[in-house]
Amino acid sequence: MAASDPITDEVTDLLQQLIRNQCVNDGTVASGGETRSVDLLTQYLGRGGLDTELYEPQPGRASLVSRIEGSDPNAPSLLLMGHTDVVPVNADGWHRDPFGGELVDGEVWGRGAVDMLNLTASMAVAFRKLANEGFKPKGTLVYLAVADEEALGTWGARWLVDHERDAVVTDYVITESGGFQMPSPAGPRLPVLIEEKGTYWSKLKVRGTPGHGSQPFRTDNALVTAAEVVRRLVEYKPETRIGETWRRFVEGIGFPPEIAEPLTSPDLLDDYVSTLPLGFSRMVHACTHTTIAPTVMHAGTKTNVIPDFVEMEVDIRTLPGQSGDEIRAMLEEALGDLADRVEIESNDDPSTSSPSDTPLWDVLTKTTSRLVDGSSLVPFVMVGGTDNRFFRRAGSVGYGFGLFSKHLAFEDYATMFHGNDERVDQESLRLSTELWLATAKELLT
Ligand SMILES: [Zn+2]
After folding, report:
1. In degrees rounded to 5, what are phi and psi of residue 138?
2. Is the model's pLDDT at 432 over the cut of 70?
3. For residues 353 and 249, what is the distance between their CA atoms, to the nearest angstrom?
4. Which end of the chain, N or C, is more open, meaning fewer C-beta atoms within 10 Å of its C-beta?
């Protein structure tokens, strides 16, 4: 399990440093501090003789671009994009320091180890290695270490695509995540995220009437109303929808009929999903439903004051083809007679997708089959959002991919994402680095 080759050592070391930089994005503009990791990567790539461009739309929120220019402007171009920010942690739930970047028994521990500093690091290592080898592609290769992925890309990918399009938009884009090995009787299946759900993040405001906390009888307590709003949202069951990508994924994995049938039947899926292992059931459910998760609530000012105002945030994820109007109608149905007590403000960012019949797909098929014996690719749905959406809307083919070793089971991967004890094994880091090297060479020369 110990590191045994220079590439593995190099990517391990870079990942540890990225983790220790603690670029925690809590959604506020003052958080993130991605410039720390951009400085690190500027030095790292600079030592390989590479030029870098910095874009810093807000103090501390820098992104870095480096390019290996192709010789043929008509040849396809490829962007390897990794974000440098991570989500907050609650250290109480961890068995190691979440920002220690410790290497323990061949695993690197820390926030970002699978989301997605592992890939940000492996992409940088591959990029610098290509430059060192004197890589002269026909098509341009671009490396982007991007800020603010974890808060809708406002100061990262969204900003870059809007303001610095020529610097970052390419024909093909690869970013998180995918590539975990799903065992099947015909060999490991590697999901490529060709589609992602949309977000419809909403702020809900509930108003009441203030009063003295010592006399609660017949008061109009906004917090009590809000609690009922939360209950109704959670109780609401959006219908099951079997999309094309989900169906192709289930077919591609080659599940036996007794599993494939309930996974692709809107009538059977809801009962079946609750019998599955926890991580897998959450994923199956999210791939086939609009999801509604109340996540933040602010209420009240003082113990003896009946609150007259509550503001809550709800994380809503939408399926391909769903409009904002459709989601709004769902919310109203869920709230029932409380609908007119709730003011809703939403940010509609619809689902995006890319085709799978592309040269990049063919190249990835070839390069991964050399790295993972007997493997093949399957299209998959990303249930969260990634920066791919901005690039897909700008006309790029965007895939979420990377490679993970067979030691990292999907079940673990899914629970570590934004969860406790996030860590990645060094074999996964090596595989991803090899993947970028081989893919750039195949696609761009
Ligand atoms: Zn991520």
Report:
1. -75, -45
2. yes
3. 14
4. N
Four-point Cα dihedral 360, 154, 352, 86, nearest 10: 70
Please report which residue ranges of 206-243 form alpha helices under DSSP H: 222-235
Share of the chain above pLDDT 90, in %: 93
What is the Å distance from ligand 1's center to 116 Cα?
Answer: 5
Amino acid at the residue 52: T
The confidence score (pLDDT) of residue 1 equals 46
Catalytic residues: 85, 149
Tell me, in angstroms, the distance from the centre of ligand 1 to residue 247's CA.
Answer: 25
Considering only CA atoms, which of 95, 125, 92, 99 is closest in space to residue 113?
Answer: 99
Would you give the distance in Å from CA 126 to the centre of its chain?
21
- Centroid of ligand 1 to alpha carbon of 175 (angstroms): 9
Q: Which one, of 163, 84, 154, 178, lies nearest residue 124 by Cα?
A: 84
Cα–Cα distances (Å) from 435 to 24, 63, 381, 421, 430, in that order, read 28, 23, 21, 26, 9
Which tokens in the block code for residue 260? 């494939």
Burial profile 12-45: b = 16 or more Cβ within 10 angstroms, e = fewer: bbbbbbbbbbbbbbeeeeebbbbbbbbebbbebb
12 forms beta bridges with none
Q: Ligand 1 centroid vs 303 CA: distance in angstroms? A: 39
- To the nearest 10 degrees (0 to 180), the angle between helices 6-20 and 35-46 is 150
By the 10 Å C-beta count (0-12 exposed, 13-18 middle, 19+ buried), 280 is classed as: middle
Burial code of 357-392, b = ≥16 C-beta within 10 A, e = fewer?
A: ebebbebbeebbeeebeebbbbbbbbbbbbbbbbbb
Distance 31 CA to ligand 1 centre (A): 16
Q: pTM of the full predicted structure?
A: 0.89
Rg (CA), the chain: 23
Q: Which residues pair with 376 in a beta bridge?
A: 189
Distance 84 CA to ligand 1 centre (A): 9
- What the block records as the tokens of 199 is 């977000």
| Cα 218 from Cα 356, distance rounded (Å) | 60
